Please model this.
Amino acid sequence: MIVITGGCGFIGGHLADALGQVRVIDVKKGYLSPEAEFVRCDVRKKGVIDACRGADTIYHFAADPDVKVSIRSPMNTFETNTAATINLLEAARLNSSKFIFASTSTIYGEAEPPTSEDSPALPISPYGASKAACDAFISAYSHTYGIDAVSCVYGNIFGPRSDHGVVFDFYNKLMKNPDEMEILGNGKQKKSYLYISDAISATLLVADRAKGYNKYNIASEGWTTVNEIAEVVSDELGLSPKFTYTGGERGWVGDVPKFRLDISKLKSLGWKQETPVEDGIRKYVQWLKSRR
Ligand SMILES: NC(=O)c1ccc[n+]([C@@H]2O[C@H](COP(=O)([O-])OP(=O)(O)OC[C@H]3O[C@@H](n4cnc5c(N)ncnc54)[C@H](O)[C@@H]3O)[C@@H](O)[C@H]2O)c1
Model:
């Protein structure tokens, strides 16, 4: 039996679609994959350990993924992201489950690009720190209790059903004002993005190869600037807005303005990106339009 925490969320929901009959554990029922069983449970509560009974594999994807929230309330982020992960690791220990975790590029902070999995964790936001601490606990549980585990270190993942991130933000801004759009920072921020279907294929591949503890960067090879994203979203909507900038090299406090993940370890497993980032942005914008 496969458990997906956060399985009603964006990545967890797509994972559930790909895996079919799974048990989804989530605090709220958003999207529910057609074949999934839903268990309402807060991962911060010890009851989640019981909810995982019989799990061969636990995909732990529930979290508060918002960097800005983590800056306002680091303790909440610690409780939801880090302390809760220890509950799920306990469940994995009791059930001898494989453990697949949604980590993030923000663990590396402002590391020199391209950043490999061997780079030290030097996060610059409480969110990044909360996830780096999880990776450390997962490594410790794997070594101490013999759990096969993977930290999936995602770049920026985007696509249908995501309700956050830069593409979503630009789309909504342009729906409100098609003539002018404010861009946070100077627009020159450059980051690694990946379309959701590619993120799922990579996740399933690394999960399949889990042995001992491993970390895999999951992103596209290149990087994309915020200005490029603004151009593609506008173009897909048939608009030519004037861009204005809040200025500065970061979009917000805790934003890492430049990151590019080294994905050679993932590629060495035979993984290939199927959807170029620009095509993915266009597909996602089409999907957002279709829902209006
Ligand atoms: N989307 C990205 O670009 C990205 C990048 C790096 C890492 N991640 C990580 O991937 C995971 C999924 O991200 P997402 O973008 O799908 O986010 P999301 O917000 O769409 O999904 C998170 C899910 O977790 C659930 N959840 C939150 N708190 C919970 C709690 N206390 N108990 C039970 N369920 C709870 C939410 O209800 C939601 O359904 C997160 O761990 C996130 O940190 C995402």
Summary: Residues 6, 8-12, 26-28, 30, 42-44, 61-65, 80, 102, 104, 154, 156-157 surround nicotinamide-adenine-dinucleotide (CB under 6 Å). DSSP finds ten helices and 13 strands in the chain. The chain has a mean pLDDT of 96. The first strand starts at residue 2 and ends at 5.
